[in-house]
Amino acid sequence: MFDRLNFWLKFLWICLCKPFALVKHINGRNVSILVDALRSESPRVILGNLKDLLQIGPKSIETNSIDLFCDVITSTSKRIEIVGWAFSPNEIDKIRVFGDDVLLGKARYGLSRPDVFAEASDRVVSESVGFDFVTKEKGYKTIRLEAIDKSGKKVSIYRRSIEFSIEDQYQLIRGKGKKQSNKKYISIPSKPSIAVCLYVQPEDDTLLIKDIRKSLQSITSSFHPNCPILLLSTLERHQDSFEQRIHEGVSLQLCRYDNFKKTVNNTGCDYVLFLEVGDELTEDAYYRFQHTIESKKPAFVYYDEELLLADQKLPFPLFKPSFDIDLLTSYNYIGSSALVSVKKGNTINWFDENIGEKINVYQFFLKLVSCTEDIHNISQVLLKRHRNNEKLTNKEALDFYVGQNNTNATVVEGKVPNTLRLKRRLENPLKKVTIVIPFKDNISILKQCIDSVLDKTEYENYNLFLVSNDSIEDETYQYLNSIKDKRIQWRQYNMPFNFSEINNWAVGQIESDYVLFMNNDIVIKEQGWLTAMVEHIQREEIGAVGAKLLYPDNSIQHAGVIVGIYGVAAHGHKYFDTDESGYMNRINVIQRFSSCTAACLLVKRKLFLGVGGFEESLKVNFNDVDLCLKFKEKGYEIIYTPYAEAYHYESKTRVTDSPYLESEVAFIKNRWKTFLEKGDPHYNPNLTLVKRDFSLKV
Question: How far apart, in whole angstroms, are the C-alpha atoms of residue 301 and residue 320?
């Protein structure tokens, strides 16, 4: 009791000595945190960490020569994720995480954090000071982090576990944006170069005048004062509505599909902006469009947007990747609005004759992108959309695209609502796939992997090539010598472990068209996995295909790799549940990434040899990232397909919280410096680089 009283007296004394630094932080939240902390730590320790506990002053604290900082704790209905960094001259031994008084586990330490190194280079001598921790346990009021260095010294900090959604994060970004003026970086031309085409869906039987005025108001606030505004509709009742109740001072011209080309050409504009009635443009939209036109002269432009539905309190931001035809044929991620070159529109004769009495923007966008590579994405929110995605993706439009482009595929419903799968037919005859599986003993794990492949692979033309790396157990060789299946062969490669070296050697021993690299702790989940991968690797432009990998608890281990996270690369959406859609549906749709994990990766053998295979100086980490980036450098794309699904028992064969080797991090940063500086094209620059959950950069 005396100890607690002494604490509060010292606390009040600190507040009186430094009123401006501390008193302003006295509130119900911080007092509650102090009370929680007093339950598990001595007042002396808490006073030593008071500034960090109340989030006052600099980001890091120095206690017993240990710096420990928590960037953010994100608590959702599915998980708690913690991200931060720590440093000690005596090296960090471990970081433990407590929920209230319960030990939740150890954080994964040793992640690259170049942002910390840049700001704290006087204290931090390495970039590998980051940590993260994810748990599915929830309901804790206070999170305590404890860092212990190799000398035995330790320090603790406390944080309130709060839910911080993407919508909340977006409000911070919007607030920052309001402080900046975007209208002064380009002059307004005397003649408008962009016409706006408002389009109306026929199912909108009764147009709400407030929605009409909302769209028109945003156009007149943002665009050139003489901007032509067209109404594209086939229905007479829409014409009557607009003619009877028109927004004051706006000249609106009604046009139909059969005379659209003539109407647009008569405006004299070079571009047309398609906008659905009810949606709004941001105030700086015209200036962003004009800047892009003058600097890029693209044929097709799309942009980020915010979606605010009637049942939502806050808008949800849609930050889109660079153009990806595989993602677009999975669902209409571009949205309802885009800027189109009049020249390109005239070339393709605008709309298809079978479009009927409604504008199918998905069909229109697919037609445009199949005729041009001059596509540009503006990574800024320029549109406020008030309708859901349900109307934006439809099977009929993708069926029409498949027919028009003679694509040898069928269209089926996707894994999640409002998504599709373009299921490509396999070449005949089927090309040979060799599955390379390196291993060292652990025969029970290897046997589980092999049995799952043999039992659950409908693709017929494949074989397995097992590579023993320094196996020493009698049981291992008894099993290998007992194998009778002609589809399986094994060899020995008895050298010190080097993942790249082992697999390079293995590829040199085989002659198949395709090679699939597989870890020995993979267990196949469904029959069609290899078929789903081959349907993409057979495409001329594809260099590698990655699978969807799950932990045994059905959380995501791999659903594509984002290059640049933690300064190098990391798996996106890691630890999400497999039934979650992820950010913009990206867990469960076919799409392009800059890299996929080599734990289950299918490649063209000749292309693999042509780029020199895996980089052998990368013995453990990032060899797959380097390989995929070499493929991309040669003009090939990397595909991720969720239709190839398997379990990855990573924890059985790897220490997941061990730090990356500094030499491997340095190698990637040096070889791919330009790529890292430009940013991953399949990851929007508004998204964070210190987490893997596609949350926002705040």
Answer: 12
CA distance 644 to 421: 13
- Amino acid code (one letter) for 420: L
Report the alpha-carbon distance of residue 397 to residue 305 in Å, rounded.
23
Give which of 250, 242, 38 is closest to 156, Cα–Cα.
38
Q: Residue 468: what pLDDT?
A: 97
The CB density around residue 681, as the number of other CB atoms within 10 Å, is 18
Q: What per-residue confidence (pLDDT) applies to 165? A: 79
Structure tokens at 457: 């692979």
**Coil/strand/helix, residue 377:** strand
Strand, coil or helix: 288? helix
User: In Å, how far are 116, 128, 129, 167, 688 from 69, measured between CA atoms?
Assistant: 10, 14, 10, 24, 17
Residues paired with 341 in a beta bridge: 271
Residue showing tokens 């829409």: 238
Residue 294, φ and ψ in degrees, nearest 5: -70, -35
What is the residue-wise DSSP string for 435-466? EEEEE-S-HHHHHHHHHHHHHS----SEEEEE
Residue 483 has what pLDDT?
A: 94
Token pair of 36 as six digits = 């929680």
Q: Between 662-671 and 623-633, two packed helices, what is the crossing angle to 10 degrees? A: 10
**How far is Cα 435 from Cα 485, in angstroms, rounded to an integer?**
14
Sheet holding 108-111, edge to edge: 67-75, 80-87, 130-135, 108-111
Q: Determine the pLDDT at residue 391.
A: 72
CA nearest to 252, candidates 262, 238, 265: 238
> How many residues comprise the chain?
698
Strands (E), 241-365: 252-255, 271-276, 280-281, 300-307, 316-318, 338-341
For the segment 333-347, what is each residue's pLDDT rounded down to a tens digit?
A: 999 999 999 999 999
442-450: long-range pairs with CB below 8 Å, 24+: 442/520, 442/652, 442/653, 443/473, 443/475, 443/476, 443/479, 445/520, 445/521, 445/649, 445/652, 445/653, 446/479, 446/520, 447/479, 448/523, 449/518, 449/519, 449/520, 449/521, 449/522, 449/523, 450/488
At residue 145's C-alpha, the angle toward residues 141 and 147, to 5°, is 170
User: Backbone phi, then psi, for 41, in 5-degree steps?
Assistant: -135, 155
Which residue carries 């549906």 as its tokens?
A: 585
Q: For the chain, which ranges sit under pLDDT 70?
A: 1-64, 161-163, 175-190, 201-208, 234-251, 353-358, 389-390, 651-660
**Spatial distance between the Cα atoms of 570 and 665, rounded to a whole number of angstroms:** 12
Instruction: Say how far residue 376 (Cα) sits from the centre of its chain.
Output: 19
The DSSP call for residue 405 is T
pLDDT in tens, 86-112: 999 889 999 999 988 889 999 999 888
The model's pTM is 0.88
Within the chain, what is the greatest distance between any pair of CA atoms? 89
- Integer Rg of the chain from CA: 29
Residue 397: exposed, middle, or buried by beta-carbon count in 10 A (0-12, 13-18, 19+)? buried
State the alpha helices, DSSP H only, in 349-473: 361-369, 395-404, 443-455
User: Nearest 5°: phi and psi at 112?
Assistant: -70, 130
